[in-house]
Known about the structure:
Blueprint: H1 2-79
Amino acid sequence: xQKTFDDIRTQIHEIRNILGPFDTKLAGLDHRIAEMRxxxxxxxxxxxxxxxxxxxxxxEHSAKIxxxxxxxxWIEATLKVPPRxxxxxxxxxxx
Length: 95
């Protein structure tokens, strides 16, 4: 019975020796993944900030364009000369 326990203990140690390097590599990968997450979060935050700034500028330009469009329509409407009334029997030149 003691031999069986010794065999089991030996097998457990062999398994630990085999899994030890994998465990170390997994811990290293876990650390690397955590670093990459922080880096990605940082870059994503910078990108979101730039995107927000660009969106604000687009909205600002859109408002200016709308204002200019309204002014242009007002100027066109103001500058249009109403057609002169014609007397019966007279025709417009070129008609």
